[in-house]
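Reviewer 2 asked us to include a model.

Predict the structure of this chain.
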Amino acid sequence: MSILKNIRKAQSQGKGSTIIVDRLDAYFGAGVFPPVIPVEIHTQKESDTAFHPSSDTDPCVRTQFAKMAGDIKREKPSAALNRIFHIGHLLHGWLQSTLVDMDLCGEEHIEVEHRINSAREVLDCSLDWRTDPKVLEADWWARGYADVTSLKVPGKGDYVLDIKTVRGMAFRDENPFGNFREKYERQMQLYCSWHQKDAAILLAISKDTPHGLKEIIVQHDPKMVEDIYQRWDVVADALRRDIPPKCSCENHTVCPVKGLYG
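Predicted model (structure tokens):
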């Protein structure tokens, strides 16, 4: 096994300009793979009261309030959407297993939970959040799972990595994430802060063949993290008082919840 790992290491240290994509291309080009690639698809998501980096970093506090208050109707996922979710999870698991096989991270770095509360305290993830005093007594709490919490790339650095599946047409653009890029970058800011990293990698994989890969590097900005926390402070206070906060969109006329509260 050590011989195979040495082959992969040699193949992965190419002269490309990317941090991870060139190494992944070299790995797949070498054609030396483990007999079995383990992939798990977790279909059940626990409902909780937390803010989440993947969905709750809206720049508009009124929109975030509406989400947390349950005032935005959520449709049941269609059969097509569930298929999309499952294939997305499949691609995530496949790439995560690949990165482990390349010795760029360990199993212990895959989707590790992190929790924090309004006092900016790191919480014990082994505790049941329903009875944890640091959750119950806080104005808010947040939890999240980065796809890879520590990706150590020789000669490049140590990164948080998150995988995003994108449509083939969007993948062709220089910015494969389109209007979601700012949302994804805010998510990465929280992960960088939580896992003490100077930068994160957003790894895009095309859903269409030949499943191309692109990366975008996000440099950590502590001010952006604190800005997210302060918005959560505003939302939590508004939820406590049951009074929707004022829209904080740059352009109020396009607020996602315009007209919801009169």
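The chain has one domain: 2-41+59-111+146-254. The radius of gyration is 20 Å. We have added this to the supplementary material.
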